[in-house]
Every structure is written in C-alpha cells, then in structure tokens.
Amino acid sequence: MTAQRAPRLILASASPARKAIFEKAGIDFEVVVSEVDERAAVETYVETAGPLSPADEALMLARTKAEDVASGNEARNALVLGCDSVFELDGTAYGKPYEVEVAVQRWQQMRGDTGTLHTGHWLVDTTQASKQAAASSLDQIFGVFTGRTLAADGELPAAAETVSSDITFGMPTDEQIRAYAESGEGLNCAGAFTLEGRAAEHIEKVEGDRESIIGVSTAALGRMLERLGHDITEFQTS
Fold first, then answer.
1. What would the pLDDT profile of 75-131 be if each residue is shown by its tens digit?
2. b vs e for 148-178, b when ≥16 Cβ sit within 10 Å of the residue's Cβ?
3. Which residues, in sequence order, are CB contacts of 36 under 8 Å at separation 6+?
4. DSSP assignment, residue 8?
5. What distance in Å separates the CA atoms of residue 176 and residue 238, rounded to the nearest whole number?
6. What residue ranges define each of the domains in the chain, with the CATH number in brackets?
7. Annotated catalytic residue: which of 28, 37, 84, 174?
8. How do beta strands 30-31 and 8-11 pair?
9. Separation CA 224–CA 69 (nearest Å)
10. Where does the record place the catalytic residues (predicted)?
11. CA nearest 119: which of 233, 16, 193, 209?
12. Is 84 a catalytic residue?
C-alpha cells in the first residue's frame, strides 16, 4: 500500500526569521503572506469583545493571520500556520515599534528589567473543512479588514498554542540604544529586538523557548500537528 502523502504546510508569514527556523529544521513549507492589518485587528477585537491580555493578543493575531490565508484558494488542502509575537513588560503589551524613536523609548524602559515574549501559534487544517459548519465568529469580526470569509467552507479544524518566554535585559547606554534602534534591526519585531541579531549583546538571560522568541516554535508546531493527526516528520525532508 502506498503511504499517504502529507498535505502542504503553509507559513502565513513574511518573516525571514520564521522561514530560517523552518529551513534549519528541514521542514518542507510554502509561504503565503497574510494581508491582516495587525493594529486594526486588535482595535476591532477590543471594540467587539473587550480587552485582551498580551498572551491572548498574540494568539488572536496568529489566528486571524492563519484564517485569512486559509480562506484563500492558494491554501486549499493544506495546513496553514499563523504566528504572532507580543512583548509584555510590567503588564503592558508592546508590538512592533516601526519607528526609531519608539524603539529608543522601548529600550530605555526595558534595560535592567525582565519582560515576557508571547508567541501565538494557530494551525488551521483546510483538508478537513466542514461545509455544514457555520462561519467562525472571529472571521465575522475580522472580515472587515481581511476581506475574506470562511462562510463557504465553514469552521476549520485547528490547533493552537501560545509559548511564553522571559528575557532579562542588560544596561546598554543611551548611545548604544540609539545605535541599535537606528540600525533598523528591531523596528519590525515585537519588543524592538531580535534574539539572533545585534541585540544579543544587551540581553543577559533567556528563560524559555528560544525559537519562539525568534518567531516560531518547532516544538509547538509538532504538538499541534499531533493534535490534528499528523507527525512533524511527515513534513521534514530527508
């Protein structure tokens, strides 16, 4: 009997760091970038359903990205993984700074302190979509800015996991902080830093899953695949 071929695995992210993690792990995957506006997603959710904790915000955004891509034709008969990271410091959630001055302010707050990086993972299985199921409530909420709907295919089976890790920062000078911010490295990263880049010299300790801090946890992916009836080895090249 011929072994059943594993479905395609789609990464709903343009992140080079996430791609690098998958490539290093030998995972066979495709990239289809989500069109979700993260700021609009959070604002819409809060207006509709109330405040989110930083960890819940990361998972909500991961789900929104995964469902956005999963609802497109390019994701038919595939598993779609959405990820998002939110940095928490003293109970406040911080996303991407985007601007140099914002990154400088973030680093001045973070130095000498410990924060938590929450990375949400949401894995959608479009191979088992039920045409009889109602569209998900979250899709209805986010349809305004995704421009897509799951109503045609119904509720999609999914598995989810949030991985949280603690990062303790050193005491960089104001000059070092500005030099790092102006390098642009952390402007598109939650917390205004990248663990694998130049910020490493200003990080004293990491407790948790280093991959999840960079952007995606292959250990979490393996657990989610198992819950959906798959094994991560099905998606790894020899």
1. 999 999 999 999 999 999 998 999 999 999 999 999 999 999 999 999 999 987 643
2. bebeebeebbbbbbbbbbebebeebeeebbb
3. 61, 64, 65, 68, 142, 145, 146
4. E
5. 43
6. 8-235 (3.90.950.10)
7. 84
8. parallel
9. 18
10. 84
11. 209
12. yes
How many CB atoms lie under 10 A from the CB of residue 31? 14
Contacts with 160 (C-beta within 8 Å, 6 or more apart), sequence order: 59, 62, 63, 120, 121, 122, 123, 224
Residue 3 banded pLDDT, cuts 50, 70, 90: low
- Those residues whose C-beta lies under 8 Å from the C-beta of residue 91, and which sit 6 or more positions away, are none
Predicted confidence (pLDDT) per residue in 222-237, tens digit: 999 999 999 999 999 8
Query: Other C-beta atoms within 10 Å of 39: how many?
Result: 12
Contact predicate 234/37, CB 8 Å = no
Q: Which two tokens stand for residue 155?
A: 């509720």
**pTM for the full predicted model:** 0.86
Q: Three-state SS for 27?
A: strand
For 121, half-sphere exposure in the C-beta direction (CA atoms, 13 angstrom radius) is: 27
What angle separates helix 137-146 from helix 38-49, to the nearest 10 degrees?
140
Beta-carbon contacts of 41 under 8 Å, excluding residues fewer than 6 positions away, are 60, 61, 64, 142, 145
DSSP labels, 56-103: HHHHHHHHHHHHHHHTSGGGTTEEEEEEEEEEEETTEEE----SHHHH
